[in-house]
Amino acid sequence: MAEFAVVLPSWFDLITTNVASITYTSTLPQVSRMLRPLRFVRIFRLVQFATSSLQQQAWAAMLTIVSIVFTTAGVVQATEACLEACDGEPRVCKCRDLSFPNLLYFVVVSISTLGYGDISPVSTSGKFVIAFVILFTFIVVPIQVNRIQATITSHTDYSSAYSEAKLHPHVIVTGYVNADTLSVFFGEFFHPSNLNWNERVVILNASPPTAEINKVLHANESKVQYIVGSPMLDEDLTRAVISDASACYVLVKRQSSRPQYADQCCALITIALRRGNPTCPIYAQIINSRNAATLLKMGASDVVVIGMLKFSILGRSCQVWGLPTLLLNLLAQCNSDLDSHHSSLQWQRQYLHGYMHGIFVVDIPRTFSGLTFGDLIRFLYDKASIIPLAMLTDDGVRFMDMEFKLGATADPNLCCKVYAIAKGLTAVEGVMKIPPEQILSYRKGVRRKGKSMSSNSLLEMKKIKPALGNEIEQIRESIINMYTVAEDYDVEAALGLAERDFTGYTASDERLVGEMSEYERFASLGVPEDVTDHIVVCGFPSDTYHFIKTIREAPVPDDNTPSPAVVFLASNVIDEREFERLRGFLDVYFVQGSPVNFGDLKKTNIRSAISVLILTQASEAQYSDPNMVDADAITTVRYIVEISQRTRMPNLVVELDKSSNVKLLSSLANDRRTSSAFGLPALVVRNVSYRSPRHDSVMSAVSRRDSFWTSLDEGDGNTDASFVLEEFIASGRVFMNSMLDSLMSECYRKPWITQFLHLLINGSINDLEYVLSILSSPFFTLTIILSVESDDCFKWKHRMN
């Protein structure tokens, strides 16, 4: 439209030249010449080059004012110009020839201060134009200013881009984020013992941070930047500088009511991140194991399968006492010297000494080549107090035979990488400082007393090649194969269910008309009266298959001892598709009811159970206060304590979603009966009741305990450090979901640690009995948790060979 308007004066000039009746001073040509300054409006095309909404509004406001000034000056010059010579005063001639700079000055002064009077329009049309422009400016300019203010108000720090990519490397965290997950993640990622502690974290989330998340962000504001945006949009990934990211984390909503949908969202985010950076490591969380292989094929470097990992640990915890605490303490980082924190209780000193140990990836120097893996364990324990457990090979992480001989790798300085338990980063760094003379002397002594091996064993060991972590694709393929087994089983279960739906029965499930199906019998018959030494589970795991599979694969004392039966107590039965996956397991029963009902608990024969597992079934959305999510689990503990008062207390394991709620569980330990029933460590004076007149003695003991915890928190710099001393955690009876967040953070600096953890819990096809025998050994648990300092701490591995 502006182009058409500015062309009109040229047409009228052409008309006045060829038509005698229309002269140059006629009204219509004069009016048309006033349209020529409108060509300046085309300067608004520059707005399209702005890169943000704030820049667009700022450019629009500035160009609006500039356009008003220049256009008005041009229009006034055209209206005030003297088309015919006039020797009189301007007010008499009703015209005036002014230079364009003077007109610019006049317009600026007129619209800003209503004029000084030194220059004023003399023509009627000029006065009308100036009056209109002043009114127009009073209306338009404030509107533009308000738009800028609104844009600035909405343009918070959460909509800016990450600008420190060249100064500080960064990782991107996206997916489902909440305050609890971020708190644990930051505590591990920014821990002083983390070699990458100086890196930055960029959180890319579609929603603005909540009040709880803001508290976590303020505690780490110098190292964390929150960006509101979608990882599915290229412009938002550009603001997060995905091209320069060192790593990416994709988090899943663990308590999602639609697990498959949550996994699909993580898969789409993984694809978008891989498009943005083809080489960046991507660590993703998912819920269902059936989606793990697919996610790895879509570009994820490693996956943490929440359901499979959590319920494998819980399943093993039913038979290996203290396993949740063992893994929690090994995954949590501890930098300070906790041995300097003196406690009046012997168990605390030993326990804290064990808490200082963790899982590390240790680089073994080239000078160790020629030693066997068993010799490496013995030597590193003697010289550096390090216990190697597994080795990184070109097929992934695996347990090695004690007679496997360490060879050479492509790196001239390294022999191999091992996953080991060590007392802090200092012990790990000490391996590279061991004098080569000591290693050579030890190797010569080992050769003199070496023993022969079978040719088959030698041939098998030669196929194993140590890796340095660069064989990413080959290791990923081995992980994909590990998860494909579960995926194939799901397909078979689905096909079996489809066949059942189509024919009404299968070859393995033929029954008479009116007879209950296997699923109906499972849902209605309950528990036989003769079931004893079984496992009671309050609630259904989200991955029931891997939970029972872990229990069934555990070794038994002899061939005559059956695997324990599993009894589920829940308000609703699992669906038929999930039951299809469990049909191959024997001695699995279901009781419909509530664990806070004594009658329903008795139906499970709980008094003769060897283990009781309490799962958190609720979600945060069910409560106005999200910290109430563990209310059912904590209440259930009370009921089980009451019903087990006159019998032996089973091995009780409780799942908690909120770490802070463990203090509510530990309040049960103040009851002497509960303490003795659970076998809890004595943290306060148990022979004094809170109801007795000696209440002050108990409070002073609690005060001393709290002061000890305070010094622990201040020395360690970890706000959750005191949780490890809570009675229920110290006794190995609590599984906290924060362990999974700690593992997620560790993926970056300890590659393939998830595969190592799966191997540690579930073993592999070739060494399953070997691993389970180690994990079932009480001495193994005591060695790591209490860190008993003796030569026997590594001998168990040799005895298991």
TrEMBL record:
<dbReference type="InterPro" id="IPR013099">
    <property type="entry name" value="K_chnl_dom"/>
</dbReference>
<keyword id="KW-0813">Transport</keyword>
<keyword id="KW-0630">Potassium</keyword>
<keyword id="KW-0633">Potassium transport</keyword>
<keyword id="KW-0631">Potassium channel</keyword>
<protein>
    <submittedName>
        <fullName>Unnamed protein product</fullName>
    </submittedName>
</protein>
<keyword id="KW-0472">Membrane</keyword>
<dbReference type="GO" id="GO:0005267">
    <property type="term" value="F:potassium channel activity"/>
</dbReference>
<keyword id="KW-0406">Ion transport</keyword>
<keyword id="KW-1133">Transmembrane helix</keyword>
<dbReference type="InterPro" id="IPR047871">
    <property type="entry name" value="K_chnl_Slo-like"/>
</dbReference>
<dbReference type="Pfam" id="PF03493">
    <property type="entry name" value="BK_channel_a"/>
</dbReference>
<keyword id="KW-0812">Transmembrane</keyword>
<dbReference type="InterPro" id="IPR003929">
    <property type="entry name" value="K_chnl_BK_asu"/>
</dbReference>
<feature type="domain" description="RCK N-terminal">
    <location>
        <begin position="168"/>
        <end position="305"/>
    </location>
</feature>
<dbReference type="InterPro" id="IPR003148">
    <property type="entry name" value="RCK_N"/>
</dbReference>
<feature type="domain" description="RCK N-terminal">
    <location>
        <begin position="532"/>
        <end position="674"/>
    </location>
</feature>
<dbReference type="Pfam" id="PF07885">
    <property type="entry name" value="Ion_trans_2"/>
</dbReference>
<dbReference type="GO" id="GO:0005886">
    <property type="term" value="C:plasma membrane"/>
</dbReference>
<dbReference type="InterPro" id="IPR036291">
    <property type="entry name" value="NAD(P)-bd_dom_sf"/>
</dbReference>
<dbReference type="Pfam" id="PF22614">
    <property type="entry name" value="Slo-like_RCK"/>
</dbReference>
<keyword id="KW-0407">Ion channel</keyword>
